[in-house]
Amino acid sequence: MLSLDLAQRLKSSGLVWSPASGDRFVLPVADMEDHVFVLSDITADVHRFATGDVIGFNGTTEWALDSVDQDAVVWLPREDQLRERLGAAFVSLEHVTGGYAVTATSAGGIEARFVDVDAERAYARAVLARLGAGWP
Predict the structure, then answer these.
(1) How many whole angstroms separate alpha carbon 115 and alpha carbon 92?
(2) pTM of the full structure
(3) Of 76, 91, 75, the residue nearest 126 (C-alpha)
(4) How far is the CA of 77 from the CAs of 9, 60, 111, in angstroms?
(5) Are 10 and 124 within 8 A, CB to CB?
(6) How many CA atoms lie within 13 A of 122 on its CB side?
(7) What is the pLDDT of residues 78-94, one digit of tens each?
(8) Which residues of 87-104 are buried (b: 16+ CB within 10 A; e: fewer)?
(9) What is the 3-state secondary structure (H, E, C) of the chain?
(10) Sheet (strand 111-116) strand order
(11) Which terminus of the chain, N or C, has less C-beta within 10 A?
């Protein structure tokens, strides 16, 4: 799973999130960073308003939190979502010593490898580069 830091970097770099059932997110506030929430049609879902999307917590009477603005949470995209964001820039995923490497191409056709401890994080680094956060 992505680290909160890496997910925040993706958000800051402009990765757009359209919340859907099954998506994971974190509330980046004290004592909540370690709690990963999952959108579900049963307990947490998206309420769309003209003023912005709100994530609602349904049926969670033990929580004082009813909803939170989408902008206030950090999405933790899954491996498949990150691979989808790379699109045609994705070249390959390979297992390497100590983790995984994603090879992708820049807008100019330059190939680069992004290595991390798991595939999700390697994909995230490639997406960050595509978003302009630094192509090696």
Answers:
(1) 12
(2) 0.81
(3) 91
(4) 12, 24, 23
(5) yes
(6) 22
(7) 999 999 999 999 999 99
(8) eebbeebeeeeeebbbbb
(9) CCCHHHHHHHHHCCCCCCCCCCCEEECCCCCCCCCEEECCCCCEEEEEECCEEEEEECCCCCCCCCEEEHHHCEEECCHHHHHHHHHHHEEEEEEECCEEEEEEECCCCCEEEEEECCHHHHHHHHHHHHCCCCCC
(10) 90-96, 99-105, 111-116
(11) C
pLDDT digits (tens, 9 = 90+) for 31-61: 888 989 888 766 677 888 999 998 877 665 5
